[in-house]
Amino acid sequence: MAELITVDDPDDPRLRDYTGLTDVELRRRREPAEGLFIAEGEKVIRRAGQAGYPMRSMLLSAKWVDTMRDIIDEVTAPVYAVSPELAERVTGYHVHRGALASMARKPLPTVDEVLRTARRVAVMEAVNDHTNIGAIFRSAAALGMDAVLLSPDCADPLYRRSVKVSMGAVFSVPYARLDGWPRALDSVRKAGFRLLALTPDERAVPMDEAAPHRLERVALMLGAEGAGLSGRALDAADTWVRIPMAHGVDSLNVGAAAAVAFYAVTTGRPES
Amino acid sequence: MAELITVDDPDDPRLRDYTGLTDVELRRRREPAEGLFIAEGEKVIRRAGQAGYPMRSMLLSAKWVDTMRDIIDEVTAPVYAVSPELAERVTGYHVHRGALASMARKPLPTVDEVLRTARRVAVMEAVNDHTNIGAIFRSAAALGMDAVLLSPDCADPLYRRSVKVSMGAVFSVPYARLDGWPRALDSVRKAGFRLLALTPDERAVPMDEAAPHRLERVALMLGAEGAGLSGRALDAADTWVRIPMAHGVDSLNVGAAAAVAFYAVTTGRPES
Question: Which domains does chain B have, with CATH numbers?
Fold first, then answer.
């Protein structure tokens, strides 16, 4: 059972995990370096725990103690009870969800480990918007993608906003970082995956004709909003696929495009 | 050719169309009542013009005059050149995109008019988030839905944020308001449409089995984020369909779910 510790000094060093949460640049450096990430709100904190991330500490406003009682009873990490004003002083924002937990990261699996049992993998290049990363993980989880591989310059799926937007899906879909881009895609191909690059390019095969749900192993490559996949990434792919567009529209947003593509590679359909 | 008028008084009554743009409640009342909507940024202003919406006026900061020169030359509406500071005083926010246009609304088509030529229609119930409305229109346009029908309590697709998120797709996909909900769905059925209700309910038919791309005419019913379709709407449907979910995830976000469902009803696929 955790200790419940009332803290009323915003400079208390025990609250250091929670300082300056609105400073994206600061947190982006600090969190991986210090091996932590922040889970926000009851649901996400529970999911992080269920996924086996060890808790370093929790920060609660008093009225959340009852709701979180079972977690407080279970964990051994310290639980700091603070006023909403003090939470705001420390974090830099009004903590609507009333509960924050600092969780310890786990070592990421290697690419080989991730690919060993997977059949449908999303490969993201340079997706560095935390909202988009979270949205893509949420769709990947819901639509049955087995894993996600990230190019070295993708944003951190465990950043607070990504975790929140994903509704905790970043905990349930295994992911790994590719080392060397796009060179590392060779190892994905060697593991038996067909590399499909999603692009609006008209020379690409329409998704319905490509029928990727029939392939044994698929790695679906996605680029960032706006830029899309780089030329180097497109060159490294086996096949270009596109979602047919109507009404002269340029493109879907990256979240919608990812969802459609995940559906197309995971879901069989009777003859048309 | 439009007059280019320099204005330096924030209380100039000619700027009234642009006052208080950040006051959602105020604008939500005023814009339909006064028959206007606001297009923001070069691309969206051009698309509104191409879609045949008459311009009432334009508000530009000086450095945007060159970019918008061809539009200024074309329209007869007055164009107000203002400083960025004055634009912010009038609108209530810093106008990053440098150009705003007040456009005149056109009468909405009737439901019958919209249904006459359509084969794939999205029907939204109580989607009152402007971002979601915009995202759904963008996907509907890109994925080839022919029209959108809105329950009486859906938000306004021409609200500034909806227009922006849709990238102007609210101008290219015809839409109409249903009068009486869910009673008005009868008229949709009578027009030859099969009413498919999208729901996570396990009793629903998986989308791939339902194979809605084979149906002659489909009206795909979507509810709001969180709540989903109401019981009354579900009762009024012909068939419940669901997107199969993996990993124990509750649901996709409404934008992702809509995109997948639109793809499923618009896109044929070879035999699996």
Answer: 4-104 (3.30.1330.30), 111-266 (3.40.1280.10)
Q: Would you give the end-to-end CA distance of chain B in angstroms? A: 58
**SS3 category, A60:** strand
In this structure, how many other beta carbons lie within 10 angstroms of the beta carbon of residue B35?
12
The answer to whether B162 and B132 have CB atoms below 8 angstroms apart is no
Q: Which residue, among A148, A167, A247, would best test binding to B if mutated, counting the most B CBs under 10 Å from its CB? A: A247
Q: Tell me the two tokens of residue A252.
A: 């879907």
Distance (Å, whole) CA B188 – CA B112: 8
CA distance B120 to A64: 47
Look up residue B127 and give its two tokens: 């989607």
Report the side by side order of strands in the sheet with A55-61. A4-6, A79-82, A55-61, A99-104, A36-40
Q: Which residues of A touch B (CB under 8 A)?
A: 135, 138-139, 141-144, 167, 169, 172-173, 207-209, 211, 213-214, 243-253, 255-260, 263-264, 266-272
Give the Å distances, CA to CA, from B123 to A59, B156, B201. Answer: 43, 14, 18
Q: What is the DSSP letter of A197?
A: E
| Cα separation, A120 vs A130, whole angstroms | 23
Q: Which of A147, A139, A149 is closest to A233 using CA atoms?
A: A149
Sign of the CA dihedral running A166, A234, A184, A119: positive
Degrees to nearest 5, angle at CA B62 with B169 and B41: 10
Alpha-carbon torsion (A21, A25, A30, A35), positive or negative? positive
The terminus-to-terminus CA distance of chain A in angstroms comes to: 58
Q: pLDDT truncated to tens, each residue of chain B (272 aa)? A: 777 899 999 999 999 999 999 999 999 999 999 999 999 999 999 999 999 999 999 999 988 999 999 999 999 999 999 999 999 999 999 988 889 999 999 999 999 999 999 999 999 999 999 999 999 999 999 999 999 999 999 999 999 999 999 999 999 999 999 999 999 999 999 999 999 999 999 999 999 888 898 889 999 999 998 889 999 999 999 999 999 888 666 678 889 999 999 999 998 644 43
Task: Return the number of other C-beta atoms located less than 10 Å from residue A7's C-beta.
Answer: 17
Q: Nearest residue on chain B to A267, judged by CA atoms?
A: B208
CB B152 within 8 A of CB B181: yes
- Quote the ipTM score: 0.88
Q: What share of chain A is helix, strand, coil (3-state, %, to 5)?
A: 40, 20, 40
Tokens read off for B213? 């791309």
Q: Please give the backbone phi and psi of residue A54, each rounded to the nearest 5 degrees, phi first.
A: -70, 140
A177 vs A66: CA distance, rounded Å? 39
